[in-house]
Design a protein that fits this description.
Length: about 450
Amino acid sequence: MKKNFKYLIAGILPLALLSTSCNKLLEVTPKYIYTTKQIYDNDLLADSVVLALYGKFATMQNDLSLSTGFSSDEFRPGINNFNEGYTFMYNYNLNPFSGFTNSYWETCYSVIGIANAMEEGVAQSTGMTQAGKNEVLGQAKFMRALNYYFLINLYGDVPLVLTSNYKEERIKPRMATSTVYDQIVKDLEDASALLRDQYQRERVRANKWAALALLSRVCLFTKEWEKAEQSASQVIAQQHLYRLGQLDTQDGTKVMDIFVKNNSEQILQLWNSLGSSIGGYTLGTFTSFAVTEDENGLLQAFESDDKRKDNYTKLEESTTSYMNYKYRSNGEDGMPNNEYTSVLRLSEQYLNRAEARLQLGHPSAIEDVNILRKRAGLTAISNSIPKEQALKAIIHERRVELCFEWADRWCTLKRLGIADAVMSKAKPDTWKSYAQLFPIPTTEIQNNRLLNQNPGYTN
């Protein structure tokens, strides 16, 4: 941990140089550009910018999963709810002035701004080695792609900012989602060619396989089935790096290790120095949210013999409601924090490949789903079921396997065009179709006359 702390401190200087202190979210102030030569004078100093990049992105690791869990059918406010923002998300009482949704716009564009400056800094560097340049550039492209993925899934069409030139970038109009996806795919393909195959120390930075893992997901959104299948297959083939983790055994001899730091199922995690993991937010008497338990809720979606029900959720007896139990470290009783936040993991690759293969007419597409079902203690699904039924099975497995993780359920519902059908049943009294997109922050519209608000919201 001391070594990690040293690297984190080294990242503070570049973060201060590359990020803006004002509230103009797309601004990268010109005066900071003058430090470029110093920052990218050698590999070590340039590498500290990568840490700053991940540090900024990590500020979303708790709230994004929780917020979109309320927007979808995963979470409901708990009996001890003290966070008004959660209630707003659950009931879709969102507005362009809300810091709750505005923060994602701010964070994503801040990360993108740093990534853009990194790309320019590497291009101008005369002191870095080629290997160092490849690493920094690959990380910048990966993180830019990841943050644009979240932006378009949360807000729809967004400005495509690819340089640190504030005067030009601050007044860009919203770009079609398809165009942004094109850039995301290009960035991920570039990143997969630039990044290392192996991990440097821990699994807290993207490598080649992380870029391909995210590419396989993105290609489900763009309906590039062959590319989605090929990318997922390349990741799954790295058996020396990746294998599925262990769920709790019924006799208690083994405990779930999937979310333990550097577990073999993890493709990318976020390092943290907290006294607890996300478990500190999702477990305990005073947790202000709970897993949905009604007939359309997540708890009822688990099959009766599914081990994931007891591994991924837990009954909090004091509140008689179920909590997110994927992360166990909650900082109590001196419990050591041996968990890092999962960003990408192997199980998703099986689901991505299953869906891509189904769309390609692969005769054994459902076999990848059965790999996860076997781990969960469930019976296999027949390969001979009709395509429509197979797709429902894949989406069901995605719901229970990737619950609470980085808006996956929320994004999947919208990607498949079933958000209205699912959410009108889950929340018949409050669902609003336009809530599939969050409002654009009012301050951004005020600062950029070319931006327009999403339907359903008033500036």
